[in-house]
From TrEMBL:
PROSITE patterns linked to this entry: PTS_EIIB_TYPE_1, PTS_EIIB_TYPE_1_CYS, PTS_EIIC_TYPE_1
Protein name: PTS transporter subunit EIIC
Taxonomic placement: Bacteria, Bacillati, Actinomycetota, Actinomycetes, Kitasatosporales
InterPro entries for the chain: Glu_permease_IIB, PTrfase_EIIB_Cys, PTS_EIIC, PTS_EIIC_1, PTS_IIB_1, PTS_Sugar-Specific_Components
Coiled-coil blocks: none
Gene3D superfamilies for this protein: Glucose permease domain IIB (3.30.1360.60)
Amino acid sequence: MSTEPTEKNRATAAALLPLVGGPDNIRSVAHCMTRLRVGLRDRSLVDDAALRAVPGVLGVVEDADTYQVVLGPGAVARVTPEFEALVEEGRTRVAEPVTADGLAERGAALKEARKARNATPFKLFLRRIANVFVPLIPALIGCGVIAGLNGLLTNLGWAPAVVPALAAIASGFMSLIAVFVGFNTAKEFGGTPVLGGAVAAVIVFPGVAKIDAFGEHLSPGQGGVLGALAAALLAVRVERWCRRRVPETLDVLVTPTLTVLVTGLVTLYGLMFLAGEAAAAIGAFANWLLAAGGALAGLVLGGLFLPLVMLGLHQALIPIHTTLIEQSGYTVLLPILAMAGAGQVGAALAVYCRLPRNGSVRATIKSALPAGFLGVGEPLIYGVSLPLGRPFVTACVGGAAGGAFVGLCNQLGVAFGSKAIGPSGWALFPLLDGTAGMGVTVAVYGGGLLVGYLAGFAATWFFGFTKRMLADLDTDAGAGAPPAPAGPASAKEPVPA
């Protein structure tokens, strides 16, 4: 087997590490679907311009907690382990600099100052909740695709002997997703992960059907991921209370017992019922929103999603998507939100056509468009539309138009959604499911993408540039980046070469 891919990923990691300050400047390393997320001790040691010039880097982003390097789907999952290994090797091989404490203090001060300016407790809490669900996305995608394949085979009457096996593979994870949510919640909020999983397992245990709460029998799975989230959060609080008060000699026996017992009873006689009601309300509201709001609801959702992606807050919607998938088998919101990516693609195509002499921008668009068609919006957001300003707004117009189309069709009776979260754009086709049949569902979703492309293109062509912007940008930029003109979404990052 060729080692070229591994060597390429390690070379990318090796190129990135010195540009973010070296191993001793790294506090934490993680990744999501498209970004390498690095916690830094000293932000001033980062060379932004050089990072953008590294082959394979699609852009850089900052939030209150991390410095993020956009590498794209697939690539980030391969580069991150190599990056982590290099960080560990560097720390082992090189003695900590004399100024390490000073750098740590300075980095902490910068972090706190940035948090005070740009972060709120609510946003930070949402990010932590998102961190619970993001590790589950690969399993949701895999099981969703298998479920779609199984449904296709069932409808066609093919391979009847294989269908039960595929159904078991596709459904097994979803039947126990509450346990994984409980485990990750306890881990994220500072508890013992397995205790979080243990109290969440109560929710899916078949024997809960024999228990009465609030005058009715409980149902296995009642409350779903919301109940698991609440139960694990409570378990963390109970565990911390016990750690402070139970003598060390008894801690290993008493603390886990009390944590599981107290949290388990509260879950059975309170949280399952309350979370079940909340989950039912979320499902009812989502269905009502599209059935009653239709085009207007789709317009708002599709138009506002790109700003959420830009801020990284779109991950806060993961619990809602997961709850809807648990209830009906698919989330009706994701196809509408996916229209934002279509508007972004249309806007990028218009920029490409409007700047025929700017080779740098056109090269960036050509390299980022394949990911854009597959629903990965960050390369086009941070490499094209956001730095240019006005095209970011017109991309949102395209997303709003596509969302309005899908919302209108939903209002007219074509209700459908995605069996999993994570993919978007063309990659969402294998995950679609609905009440009107696969042919109609695919046609409506494809129509929404087309509307988004056309509206984003038209809005950007006619309103995406001022005369001054065209004069400045439509020049032979060579390998350099164009200037970032002021606009409604003023540039945070220059367009990478």
